TrEMBL record:
The lineage of its organism: Bacteria, Pseudomonadati, Bacteroidota, Sphingobacteriia, Sphingobacteriales. It is an enzyme of class 6 (ligase). L-glutamine binds at Y54, G355, L383, G384, M385, Q386, E406, R463. Its EC number is 6.3.4.2. Catalyzes the ATP-dependent amination of UTP to CTP with either L-glutamine or ammonia as the source of nitrogen. Regulates intracellular CTP levels through interactions with the four ribonucleotide triphosphates. UTP binds at S13, K188, T189, K190, P191, T192, Q193, K224. CTP binds at S13, D148, I149, E150, K188, T189, K190, P191, T192, Q193, K224. This is CTP synthase. The active site is at C382 (nucleophile), H508, E510. CTPSs have evolved a hybrid strategy for distinguishing between UTP and CTP. The overlapping regions of the product feedback inhibitory and substrate sites recognize a common feature in both compounds, the triphosphate moiety. To differentiate isosteric substrate and product pyrimidine rings, an additional pocket far from the expected kinase/ligase catalytic site, specifically recognizes the cytosine and ribose portions of the product inhibitor. Keywords: ATP-binding, Glutamine amidotransferase, Ligase, Magnesium, Metal-binding, Nucleotide-binding, Pyrimidine biosynthesis. Mg(2+) binds at D71, E141.
Amino acid sequence: MTKYIFVTGGVTSSLGKGIISASLAKLLQARGYRVTIQKFDPYINIDPGTLNPYEHGECYVTEDGAETDLDLGHYERFLNTPTSKANNITTGRIYQNVINREREGAFLGKTVQVVPHITDEIKRNMRILGETGDYDIVITEIGGTVGDIESLPFVEAVRQFKWEAGPNNALVIHLTLIPFLAAAGELKTKPTQHSVKMLLEYGIQPDILVCRTEHHINADIRKKIALFCNVNINAVVESMDASTIYDVPLLMLKEKLDQTVLSKLKLSHKNEPNLDNWKDFLGRLKNPTSEVRIGLVGKYVELPDAYKSIIEAFIHAGAKNECKVRVQYIPSEQLTPENAVEKLRGLHGVLVAPGFGERGFEGKIEAIRYVRENNIPFFGICLGMQCSVVEFGRNVLNLKDASSTEMNPDTPHPVIAMMEEQKTIVNKGGTMRLGAYPCDLKKGSKAALAYGKTHISERHRHRYEFNNSYLKDYEAAGLTPSGINPDNGLVEVVELKNHPFFVGAQFHPELKSTVANPHPLFINFVAASLAYARKN
Ligand code: GLN
């Protein structure tokens, strides 16, 4: 029978529920359990696809094409197992399902209410992955902070779920903050007590408290929290700020979070967790033998969460190369033909980021012209790849005013354009090519060499495509279409001949980079940047 763990948060947001959930899952997985993590978000959007990255960080895309919360990226990076649309549910989705059923007449004239109809639908969704039989343990992270109006139906659903599951089948981990008051020189437990009190008001006694803190919490503080919050002392878990999120599983291991969880769920903990590969990764990450500076040219540079998966992919690839990757954010809006040299000076590689809309587009083109002409390693992702096609069209093929029809619908040379069959779909989100698609790589290409194979599958999130009527001209001039979708002939990878590393990918390789499997294109891009750094 599947066991369920719920993770709630109190006191404040941004305590890192996602990392704690992923770290616990990693420890359980390392003991041989089959684990998945799902996130329930209390906002009304049906999914995060329409959310501004400034507000909500990156939109993470799953194999089956769901646009999801960026925490799912952490789940995949830690566990190295794919998530799906079932792993991220919002209030909007829950209400949409209930309202659709109401319109179908499924409630037989009854009044449709938050309790029981919304809470029933939440519980049904909480069980979906558990009922596949694929998992021993399902961890459900509840977004938001306990006490928020929006979270209430989820918290009530957790209460009911736990009661229905019976003892030892479900437990609640509550993540709180133990602030340090510098003036008093003390760690304060009161916010935690209040937060637990609020959970108790909703009928939930948390089983385990994970306490975020900047200083060690000593035995006295642990005792105090245990007494006032009605938990065992070994269920008070310290979660210190860490220098990297990848330390957190080991910190939780030290606090015996996994053992406490397994005891409460009456599961065996005789297998010690096997974390050899994880520790090997951490060893490389923390002991780099070299360093590179890579420019990340994008428009959401003020909020690094907007490029979360790219940053993490660099961490994985850097560790693999035993090389510290210093990512320097470069706002594309500020790049002009006049200042590109100055702004990009000293970089050993440039990644042009994905994105939507016109803002910063011309700056990205300038960055690409500079790295192409100066043999600096270049990696373009999605919009970044499209920009490399536009740049090459304008400056090498002399296609005046070549562009993407997203930026200039009237361009005389629509080298990036929307495919005919997409044009009929009008809903926002509807026209997008989303999720995993196959791709065949040209033998001997840089991409094929990186992957070590020619059939790959990668995830997409875009509307526009390379316009194949220009394919021959590009190929003849040296920008090779080295990755093609075998089903529809769309260009998925372009790369430049006679350049140390110039690769553009229409898909999002960063979404598939994990600790166990750093992405080959990132590994080779970092290696090329390192080679460039050594020569220059
Ligand atoms: N805006 C581009 C498109 O829709 C690229 C999207 C992206 O970079 N994810 O095709």
